[in-house]
Structure formats: C-alpha cells, structure tokens
Amino acid sequence: MNSIVIVSLWILLHISNTSCQDEKISVLRGEKVELACPIDIATCGELHSLKWFKGTERIAVVSGDGEVAKVEGSYNDRLSLSHEAQTSRLIFRSVEIADEDTYLCETTFLEPSELCENSGAYSVALNVNAVPSVITLQDGNRNSIKNGSHIGPMREGQDLQVVCEVYGARPEPVISWHRSGRVVRDNLVVEEHNGLYTVKSTLSLTLSRQELGATYNCRVEMKDLKLSVDNQFHIDLQVRPTKINLSGVEHHTVQGTKVLLQCQVSGARPAANMTWYNSSKLITEESSEMTSINTKTYLQNDGTFETISQMIFTATRFENGASMRCEADNIVMREDMDRPLHDTLTLEVMYPPVVSVKPENITVNETQDFLIFCDYEANPASLESVKWYRNSQEIKLNSVRYEGGNPEQTALLIKNSTRHDIGAYTCELSNSIGFDVSDNEVYVDVIYKPTVMLTMDPEAPVIENDQANITLLCNIVDGNPMLLTKVRWFLDGEFLKELPECEEETLGTDENLCEVDPSKMLLQNVGREFIGNYSCEGFNAAGWGDVSEENPLDVYYEPGNASMVHYPYIAIKRRSVTFNCSIEDRGNPAATRYRWLRGGKPVLDVVTPSWTVDPVGLDSRTTFSCFAYNEGGEGYPAEVNLEVHAPPAFIQKLQPYTGALFSTGNMSLSCRVECIPSCSISWFKDGIGIDESDERYYITNTYLPAEPATGDFESAYSVLHFNMSAWPNGILDRIKDSSNYSCVSTNNSAGPGVRSTTYFGVEYPPENTSLSSTTISVEEGKIPPKIVCSSRAYPEPAFYWTRNGETIAKGSALIVDDVLERSDAGKYTCTAFNKHGNHSTDAYIDIHYKPTCQIMRKEVEDEDVLICVATGSPRESEFEWSVKYANDSLQSHRIKSDPYESYLTLDDAVSAMRIYVCVASNNVGMGTPCEIEVAGYVAWWLKGDVLTPYILIGAVAALLLAVILVCIIIICICRRKRRQEKFTGESSTAGGSQIEPGEYENLPFHGLQTPPKKAMLCKTNLAPSLKHHNKTLTPSCFPTHPYNYINYQKDCQKGGLQAPLHPTLQHSGLPAPPPSSGEPPSLDDSCKSAERKLASLDNSDTLSSHSFTIGGTRSMKRSAEKKLIDLETVTPLYENLTDSIQIHETTAPTALVPPGKPLILEGPHQERYRISLKKPGRKGGSSRSNSAVSNSYYDCIKPIPAPRHRKYASTNSLVSKAHPGGGGERYDHSQK
C-alpha cells in the first residue's frame, strides 16, 4: 500500500514538475539554503504530519506539533528541520550539486475542512549552480597563456591554435571568441562530470598580415549567475616588408661633394635590416672613413615599422656609373629564404682627370730618342691643359727636342737624349672640373760606358801564410748604369780572366759561376806566383769601357812548412777570424781530426781543420794551438798567438755643443779613444791643430789599460785644459773663442782615425738691450705702433714686458691691440734673459689728449687777474679768451700767455657782470671751454685793500657808540616820566588820552568802551623782588628782563585780574592753585603763586605768553575775523625799550588755571586779549630783540599807538613770522 502511495506521489510530482512548480530556488554550491513549506492551519485545521521528498525519496518527516522532526538516511548530517505553526523549513547547511532536484512537501491534516484547498503537496525546484573553478587559455602545446599577454613572436603564414577551457561550472557556460568586437568561429567540446560542466573552445588561425595588432578575447558567460569573464591575448606577428624606395641624386654630382641617399622601407615587423651595396660590394662605415650611415625606425599605426636609412658619402670617380643598391629584409624573409627587397640608383660623378704615365721605366743610350705616354680617365673627357714635369720641375716644351705634350697629343717625345734627361717624369692634366697629376712616374735612365779603378783588399803587402786571400776590386767611378755586368782582369798587361765565367746561353742557371760578382776577384792562398801589376776593364749596358790604371800586388813568404794559418792574420775587434790547421805529412792513416786549444784550455765540440771565432773580442787575445791526431797518436802541435787589433773608436766622445760662461775659471774638454795598436789624440780648433806651445791650453794624455769588465781594449785618454790665466783679463773672447773644437785620433793598422767635434760657445748674459723706440707718443683712443726689443746674449735671450711689476706680454715685440687711455701712459719695461742673467730697458708711452682748463682769480701786482691753467698732453697749449654773450673783444695787451698758463688782467672800467671764457688747445685739438663769472667794478671799500678792514671797523665802532648814547638818553627820559606817573597816578597827558580819534581804530583795544590809559604793574603781588644773575629786580615796576611778564588790567583794586604763567611755569611741575567753588582765586594768592614760580626762572629763552579774559561772554564785534596787529612790521615809539608786542584775540586761557578752566576778569568791558612777548630773529619762538638796549631796565609799559598807515595782519601771518618752528604750535593752540 505504501509503495502505491509513493509511486502515486512520484507520478504526481513528475507531472507537477513538467507542468508547474510552486517555487524555484537557485543557489550556489556550498551556500546555505532553506526550503519553506507553507501550512494553512487556519483553513485546513490541525496538522497531523509533514513529509519532505526529494524526487520520490522521503528524506524528512515532522509531526504536527513539531515535537518529532527527523531527517532520514544520509541527509541527517547535512540537513536540519525548522518547524513553526505556519511554516516548516528544510535547511541545507552546505548545498551540493547532487542536492539539485524537485523537493515535495506533503502535509497531512487531521480533519481538513471543505474549504481547505491544499492538494497535500507543495513543490520546490532547487537549482544548484557552480562558479567555474578554472578558466584557462592554452596554446596548441598546452602551454598556459596569461590574460593580456602576447603570443609570439609569430610569423606570417604560421598556424595558431588557442584553447579556452572552463572547468567545474554549472549550468553549462557559454564560450565565445571575439576579435575587434566580432564573433570568431571556434570548435566547442562540452563534457559533464558529477553535474559540473567542462567546456573547451578551440580557436584555430592561419596568421596573415590582418592579424597585426590583433587582440583575441575568450568570453565565458553564465547568464543564470550573471557572470561574464574575458580572457584575452595579443598576437605578436612578424611580417615581411612590403615596399622599398631609394632616392637621392637626380642628375649628377661632382667629385668631392657630399651625396645623400635615402632608402625607405615600410610594412615590416620587426623592423627591416638595411644593407647598402656599391654594385656587389657591401658598404659599411668601417670600410670607408668617408661614409656615414644613419638608420632610424618609426612605429606605424598598424604595428609595422618604417625604416629610413640615410647614407652620406663623398663622391669620387669610383662612384661614376656605380649602381648604388639598398636591400632590406627581416627575420621573416630570412627564415623563408626569400630574396631581400632592393632598389637601385645609378650615379653620375663628374671628376677631374685621373692621370697615369707609362711605361714605368725607360732606358736608352745617349743620343737615342724616347717617348713617354700620358693616359687619363676623366668626366668630362675633354682636356684644357697638359703639363710635363721632370723631378717636380715643369719642362718648357718650346725646344725643338720636344714634341707633343698638348691636349690633342698628351704623349711627350724627347729627341737626342743626354744624361741630363735622367729623372722621374710626371704629367698634369686639367679639365673643367679640376686638375690632377699622375700618381705614378716614369723613370728615364740614359746609360753610358763605365770608367773603372782597381783596388785591393787589403792594400798592404801580405805574408803567404798569414794573409791567405786577396780580393781585387774593380770599382766603377762613373757610368750608367753604375753596375758592371762583365769584368776583364789583366796581370802585367796580359789577359788573365773574364768574369763571370759562363756562356750567355747559360746565364741565370746555377751550373756555373754566372752568379758571381764580376767586379770582385778573390786570390786564394796567395803565394809567390801572384806577384805582379793588376788592371781591369768594365762592361755595362752601354758597352766596354777603358782599362784601369795598373795596381801592383806584393806577397811576402818564408820557407818552411806551415802547419796552421788563420784569416785574417791580425784579428779585428768585433769581426771574425778563421783558423786553418794543416799538415804536410798527413800521417798514416791520413789525419782528418784536429784538436783545438784556446789559452791552453781545450775547446770542446770542434774537431774540424777550420775554426771561425766570431766575434773577436778582448778575450780572443790569447794563444791558439791545434794538432792533428789519428789512431796512432797526436801530432806535433802548431801554436799561434792571435793578435787582436782594435780600430780607433770612441769610448767617450765630445758633445755636439759645449758652452761656458765667458768669465769661467775652469774649463776643459776630454775624449777617450780605444785603439790597438795605440794611437795618439790631437786637438784642433776650427780645423787648425792646437800646438802644445800654446800657453792658453795644456793637454794631458793618458794611455789607459784594457778593462775586461767592459770589454774595452787599451785606450788613449786626452784632456784639453783651458789655461784661463793666459787669456786676456782671464776671460774668454765672445767672438774669437766661440769655435769648433775637435778631438782627432791617428790611424792604426786596424782602421782609420776617428774625429769628434763640439761647438764651443762662449756664453754671456744679456746686454746692450735696446728698443726700436724708447718713447712713443700716441693720441688717446688710438693704437700705438709696436715696440721691438733686442739684446745681445748667448744663448739667445728670451724677452718679456712688464708694467707696474706685472707681466703684460711675452716676446721681443710689444703689440697693443686695444686703444689706449690716458691711464695707460707710463713706463713699460722690456727684460731680456737667459740662463746667465737678465737685462732690462724702459720704454715710455706718452698719451696725448686735449687739454682741460681751469680759471682762477688772483691779485697780481695790485691788479685783478684771471689765470687760465691748462692740463693736457702735451702740456704746451695755446689760449684764447672771450666774453660770453657779448660782442666786446678783449684788449690783447691785457692778455699774456705762456705754453702752460694765460693771464687776463681785468678792466676796472667794466661795471657790468661778465662771463669770461677760456679755451685751451694743443696739437691734439681744442679742449672744452671753461668760464668764470666776474662782477662789475667793485667799490674801494669792497676791494681787498690792506686798510679797508681797519676803516670799516672804526666806522662800525663809531656808529655803535652813537647808538648806545642815544639809547641811554632815551632810557633816562623814559625812567623819569615813569617815576612821575608813579607818584601822580596819571599819564603823561594829564589824564587825557594821547591817542587821536582816528588812531584809536587801529589799536588792538578798538571795540572797548573806554581804552586803557596806562599799563600798570602789581606792586605788591605781581612784581616781587627777584634776583637775576646780574641785576636786582625791584617791585616798583615789572622788570624789563628780555622775557618780561606784562599784564594789562582795568582795575587792579577790584581784584579781578589774575596773571597767567610763563609757559615754562606751566610745565615746570609746580602745583597750580586749587580753584575755589566757582570763584576765581584772589589776587594775593595769584601774585604769591606767581612769585614762587617766577623765582624758579633763570635765563631761559622760552617765549613769554600771557592771556587775559575780561568780562563774561560778551565777544568783540570783530572776533570772527580774528585780526591782530603785526607789530613786527610796525616800528613802535619805544622800539629800543621794549620787545615786540603782539596782541591776539583768544578764546582759551593759558595761565594759572587748570586745563579747561578759563581765567575770568570781571569788569564792564568783557573782552579777550592775549599779549605775547617775543624776540624777533630767534628760532623756536624764543627770540631776542636786536635792540642794543633790550636788556636795560625800565619802569612801566603802556600801549603804543600805531600810525594810521600801518596795516593789519592775520594771526597766521604773525604766527609764521614771530614763531617759526615750535612757537607756532603754541599760537595755533590758543586759536583753537
């Protein structure tokens, strides 16, 4: 029954899978997944049980209440259940490929209602996907290809196979190949194993040029996983070049010019290799220094390379008609064994003639004619000139002996040749391009018969056994050729022999004596039969010459049997000697072996009858002996004592040059000559022998023994001593004693004497140094001529030039290349020097320039004189005077001049101011004018007379005395008037005003109802008794110190006046009187305070300034205009008694009240005034009056009426006049 149910469920599940499924789930392998099964308890009622099926296999069961939940079979380790009221879940901890299936959830209810729509099964399709584990690219050899890598290099035409393979993917991935966005066909193979797919896509290509720069992309796509992977590779393709182009010379070129050929090859990858050929000859930079090859490669857009090769060479005639070929190939062409691409360019080179002459040599007899050919090669071939040279000297072809040698016939025919025609001939040809001389030459030899002379070697008589051989020499003295081919020998006029002894047809063979030198005949084993007179006759190519003069030969011999001989008999140093040992009776058996002894010691390995000792040295001078021996014993020895001679030769020779200072005290020359037999040494001076009787010299000769250590034979040593005491004055003559000294040895039997010569120079330091010019004058801005310095000295001196201790030039000539300035004038020193000393001389360069002048004014002999002084080079100048801006001419008798100064006497009659101009000129030119301004006629008291100062001083003293007397009188009068007013209390006008109605308007009191009648001093408070440094100030009147304190008041009795303080008291640090409650301080307090502060004053130069305030707030009618009287421009009546008084309108107090508290003066007239005392002419507002009596005492001061014609001035103008500098600041403050 259960099986039926299961089969039914499986059929039902299968039908549901094929038709529809309740839910589909896709997950990746290894992920956790939950399959949910919904439970409709609300509709279907209580759940009985729930079962999970995988396909038809039940894998889990859950009870309705969830208390029993069981996973069955092999799924127990991988699955779990989660059961809730509405949902039951089957949980996969790690899903696998095998888990992919359709899962069925079957629900069983206890009592399902009619409304329950549950079919009893809920289907879930589980799809398990897998991401590819490996995606690879491999070539045909299964070699891995990295993503983005290059394959290659590959060659055009090769087959390429690339496999793109995907492992372990699910569902089946899709592989496609792409090239430049287009899909490429491939071969696809799909395999499945354990539910995973392996897909392999093979891309097969036959590579062509289209694959250049190609990129192939293998794309793996899994749409279900939204996965797309690209793996790409690039093909490094090598292709052959496609095009070659050779460009360069279009028409022709000229030999010697630079030729540029350019070969351009394109379409190759890798870049093409460029090769240059001249016809078939390879061209490289190493093969020719005149060829430069530069090759550059450029990458093109298609991935191929363009190669440009430039060959630069100097065109020569060898390139004319040459085919210049450029070949290009690369590795593709070489491996395919393809011929390189090539392009050819044929050159035409114009070149001058290339000349050669022939034949190489010409030999003719005298009087015969000969012809020389001049062949050439040229482009163009037409000639312009032909020249022939003999021994590099041009041949003048105007003689009748010459024919040809012109452009039509270049060959040269020389008729009737002489021996003077011998030489090397060359030919020079020229065309429109240039000329050339033949690089070879023809040597012409004109032959003539020989002249001979017979000599013998040796010349001296010989001994038969000592000198075994004699050589007869037939020497050619003149003739051409200087070679004898045949010689006839004669003895006592009779024909003896002709050499060589061969027939003409056998010449050049080795079968006879044809190769023997015919000019030498060897007489061997010379004996008595050789005695006679010998002569010879020579033959050369020109024929037989004349017979020589006879030369006798004499041979000495002695009787007896010679057992041993040697050649030469007397050995010569450094030559060889041959010993021959012979016996008359050879013995029996005949002896063939010999034994030799040298110095009594056996010589090993020598058993022959001849022994050659080579070379002969000092150790050869010993005893040589030999004897023959055979089996029977030793024969009688023959003994020879070898004599060795040394030809004269220098061991120590003279130096080519010997020098000595003329004043030397010890001088000698020495030489040493090796010679055996001994020789003597003689001394010569300029070829004349030095006699031993000459007291100027003495000679010491020594014959030195042999030196075995050095191998030197006995030698003669000679020293020539200079006896300096015998010379005039003990010194050498510089001319006579500079000579050639020779050391000459005599001949000996071994050779001729030797000579050694030295030039003996008498040396001396430089002297008599002179200059081509000792003084040079040159204008400024020009280049001076050169100065050449010479001096006598031996050895020859060198030179250098100095100036101011510094070297400025080397060499005998001083050459200045730059223009000179006047600072370059001065002394230039030339110094000549050699190893013995130096000597100097001076040159002076004088720079000439235009003069500059200066005018001075002096009194000369009681006359006013202008002196014009010129400074220039040369100093001698001419002067010219004139008056500037005037047509007046100067009287010549008032001008006196010398070459350096000019004097102009001024005319006293000239009253106008003049400007006098002086111009100086020298031989360089006219200088810049100078001028001076001279005032007109000067009064006698302004002249610089001796009595004038005394007269002026007396006049000033008299004037001062008069002023002082007048001032004293005025002061006395003033004091008397003030004293009267003090007692009467009235003014000098008896109570009336001295001011006229018209004058009152001009006073500073204008605007008051009643002008003040007088100025008073407070006797008790304001004027206490003060001590001055030289006077006592009484309180009767305020003291007339240069800085007075003056107060104007209306009513001193009312106590409404308070005097302001001097500015120095304001800032002296004394405390100000404290103000009362709204009331001004009392007059007594003010006066006492003023007394204390006045007592602290000394001679300060501070300007006195006093301000007063009268009344309440009533202002003056003209207060807005702020006018004041400029008393500086008004001369008051008492100018000499008082300082200048300025009365200013003011609005602010400056006195004893604290800052900001005005000083109130009560009265019917409430006007504001400020009175300032200043000294004119002093800086900073602290001026003093220039009055002579400004420091005198006076009693009272009152207002001074001003005349009507005086003008008013503004406050600012008075401030600027009275207080320049600091004083102005105080006045500005009062106006504010």
Notes on the structure:
The chain is mainly β. The protein is built from 9 helices and 84 strands. The model is unreliable at 15-19, 557-562 and 986-1232 (pLDDT under 50). It is flat, with a radius of gyration of 73 Å. Among the domains are: 23-129, Immunoglobulin-like (Sandwich); 134-238, Immunoglobulins (Immunoglobulin-like, Sandwich), CATH 2.60.40.10; 243-350, Immunoglobulin-like; 357-390 and 399-447, Sandwich (Immunoglobulin-like); 451-501 and 517-556, Immunoglobulins (Immunoglobulin-like), CATH 2.60.40; 562-642, Immunoglobulins (Immunoglobulin-like, Sandwich), CATH 2.60.40; 646-757, Immunoglobulins (Immunoglobulin-like), CATH 2.60.40.10; 764-845, Sandwich (Immunoglobulin-like). The strands form 19 sheets. Strands 29, 31, 32, 35, 36, 37, 39 and 42 form an 8-stranded mixed β-sheet that branches. Strands 65, 67, 68, 70, 71, 72, 74 and 75 form an 8-stranded mixed β-sheet that branches. Strand 67 and strand 68 (806-810) form a beta hairpin. 8% of the residues lie in helices and 44% in strands. This is Ig-like domain-containing protein. Keywords: Disulfide bond, Membrane, Signal, Transmembrane, Transmembrane helix. Residues 1085-1095 have a biased composition (Basic and acidic residues). Residues 1097-1112 have a biased composition (Polar residues). It is found in: Membrane.
Number of helices: 9
Strand pairing plus helix content: what structural class?
Answer: mainly beta
**What is the total tally of β strands?**
84
Overall mean pLDDT: 77
Distance between the termini: 135 Å
- The proportion of strand residues reads 35-45%
Helix content: under 10%
**Shape annotation:** flat
**What are the segments in which pLDDT stays under 50 over at least 5 consecutive residues?**
15-19, 557-562, 986-1232
CATH arch. level architecture of the domain at 646-757:
Sandwich
The major beta sheet can be summarized as: 8 strands, mixed
- Tell me the radius of gyration: 73 Å
CATH superfamily of the domain at 646-757: Immunoglobulins
CATH class of the domain at 646-757: Mainly Beta
CATH topology of the domain at 646-757: Immunoglobulin-like
Keywords: Disulfide bond, Membrane, Signal, Transmembrane, Transmembrane helix
Region (Disordered): 983-1003, 1057-1118, 1171-1232
Membrane topology: Single-pass membrane protein
Signal peptide: 1-20
